[in-house]
Design goal:
The complex is a heterodimer of chains A (269) and B (305). Chain A is an all-alpha fold. Helices cover 80% and strands 0% of the residues of chain A. The chains are: A mainly alpha (269), B alpha/beta (305).
């Protein structure tokens, strides 16, 4: 396997977002959505959290849902950003990384590529390209939240910077298995849209089925670990984040990519 | 069959099924480096399946396939084999130049070399001015020529072209034929086409597939038998003409292969038969359209007994 070819393939994925008209439109939409999220939900939530009248109530409510640690952050913008981003980025990832190989396979472009790169290299190159794209988008939105915080209190510059780096890393880790899942579903579906439908079915019907099975067979509970995002509820409170929570999305990604690699090697193009 | 260093493609007992249909049925052949190979056969005969297996797009059910000693799909073939897959298209969102440069880089060229290579192959297909055009902005014929250009990036040793001239206008089809003829000195080509006259001009080896079976594997070689052929196309062909030609000295047999075409089998010792034939046409005022030295590929493959 050639690392150089994987890097070339992932770089080409970056240009898909940053150097095409469709990519620019997607970026513009992303920016607008996050500007609105920053301006309204985050800005106003912080006002509530910091106000003497509501802070005690907010702490009580947050504590009752396990977010006690978060509401005590002096970097309130980042804590609100963390919760919103943690639950929206996985969904966003499903859409952003919905077309890794499937449309190229349909058009025949994948045939041109397989004459010059192995199928595993294409799979990993496209996956790592999507990882970089998501990492860039997460970083930009997190830094915007950090800047918003600085407009309120510049003394939080360094403490906030440490938190924002940690937030970016954890969000990027969280999106990994979702990208890997779409890489796999791209090999089973006949279009990007169908890949999204398959993913939606997996998260809804799959969750229900596991819940049903787990009510009869205790061990079936472990099947939840096959679903990307199972660790989100563990890391959301930002309290006692352990290695298991960090390893889960990595192991899920490795497993999904291994399965995708096995499949792509046997797939007719 | 024992492979040698001059073997470009070696296929042994190749079988591929799609559901119950045998797309390729125990196909075996070997072609040498430097050959220009025609892959001929009716629709659904298995030509594209064979191409796809040679390129590594499909996996064979059984049999052995080697291209320059390598298994299709191996990374060692990336700098050796290239192809124009049937119906494959470039990504419509990127410029032609960007995609071809990217393919060059995947082949191991640095960015500058890849850009130069892109300029070279676009020049070969006379589309240098389309470097910055997006694939979606090009006509069908232009897209086809761009796809042929991508097959020539990095100077591969063997190029497989599936229906390379299908859908091209006559001028561009002729230009592509000339290009293949020029490059065939350095590159082994395998071509599939329904245009037999095109294949006849370009190819020295013919593989004929029918219902997944390789029914004919011919190589044009120096004629060592005592019989040769002339193919005469003439206007208003009549039985009288056939009779008169049959009486020429050295003629063994005259057969009508088409409504306007005769295949004349003759003794090679009569080297001047072509002159005699033209004189006969001139003497009787027969308007001949074409005289071919030999038997046409179409007649060889589809001759009725």
């Amino acid at each position: 396997m050639s690392l150089k070819r994987i890097i070339l393939l992932s770089q080409f994925e970056l240009t898909r977002l940053f150097a095409t008209k469709r990519g620019w439109l997607a970026l513009a939409a992303f920016t607008m959505v996050w500007l609105i999220i920053l301006r309204y939900p985050i800005y106003h939530a912080v006002s509530v959290l910091r106000s003497p009248e509501f802070s005690d109530i907010a702490i009580q409510i947050a504590g009752s849902i396990g977010l006690y640690q978060l509401v005590r952050w002096p970097e309130a913008e980042l804590s609100v950003y963390w919760i919103i981003a943690l639950f929206t980025f996985p969904l966003f990832t499903l859409f952003v990384s919905a077309d890794q190989t499937v449309e190229d396979a349909k058009r025949g472009t994948l045939r041109f590529l397989t004459l010059r790169a192995s199928r595993s290299e294409i799979l990993l190159g496209r996956f790592s390209g999507q990882v970089l794209v998501l990492f860039a988008l997460i970083s930009v939105s997190a830094l915007a939240a950090w800047l918003l915080m600085l407009t309120r209190d510049t003394s939080l510059l360094f403490s906030g910077l440490g938190k924002v780096v940690a937030v970016i890393v954890l969000l990027a880790l969280t999106t990994l298995p979702f990208i890997a899942l779409m890489a796999l579903l791209n090999l089973l579906a006949s279009s990007a849209r169908l890949s999204i439908i398959y993913a939606s079915l997996l998260f809804t019907v799959g969750n229900l089925l596991i819940g049903y099975l787990a009510s009869y067979i205790e061990l079936a509970h472990w099947l939840y670990y096959a679903l990307p995002g199972v660790h989100i509820s563990h890391i959301a409170p930002w309290y006692n984040i352990n290695w298991q929570s960090i390893a889960t999305p990595i192991l899920q990604s490795v497993a999904l990519l291994s399965l995708a690699n096995w499949l792509i090697k046997r797939k007719d193009l | 069959m024992s492979p040698t260093t001059s073997t470009a493609i070696e296929v042994l007992n190749l079988t591929k099924r799609f559901a119950q249909k045998r797309a390729l049925d125990d196909v075996s052949f070997r072609v040498d480096t430097g050959s220009t190979i025609a892959l001929v056969g009716p629709n659904g005969a298995g030509k594209t399946t064979l191409f796809s297996i040679l390129c590594g797009f499909l996996r064979a059910d059984s049999g052995n396939v080697r291209v320059f000693g390598h298994t299709p799909g191996e990374s060692s073939l990336f700098s050796i084999l290239s192809a124009l897959p049937q119906d494959a298209q470039l990504d419509p969102r990127f410029s032609v130049g960007k995609q071809l440069t990217f393919y060059g880089q995947l082949r191991g060229l640095n960015r500058r070399e890849a850009q130069q290579e892109t300029a070279r192959v676009l020049e070969l297909v006379d589309l240098s001015d389309q470097l910055k055009a997006k694939a979606s902005e090009l006509s069908h014929g232009m897209r086809k020529r761009i796809c042929i250009a991508q097959a020539l990036i990095g100077q591969p040793k063997i190029v497989l072209l599936d229906e390379a001239t299908a859908g091209l206008d006559p001028i561009n089809a002729k230009a592509i034929r000339s290009l293949i003829a020029d490059l065939s000195k350095d590159i082994t080509f395998m071509l599939s086409s329904h245009d037999l006259s095109e294949l006849e001009r370009l190819c020295d080896t013919v593989l004929y597939l029918e219902q997944g079976k390789l029914s004919s594997h011919q190589r044009y070689a120096q004629n060592e038998s005592d019989t040769a052929f002339l193919t005469l196309q003439v206007q208003q062909l009549s039985d009288v003409m056939k009779e008169q030609i049959a009486h020429l000295s050295g003629v063994k047999n005259v057969k009508q292969s088409q409504p306007d075409e005769l295949v004349i089998e003759y003794d090679v010792s009569h080297k001047a038969l072509d002159i005699a034939l033209l004189e006969l046409c001139h003497h009787h005022g027969w308007r001949y359209k074409q005289l071919v030295n030999g038997n046409t590929l179409e007649n060889q493959l589809f001759a009725t007994p």
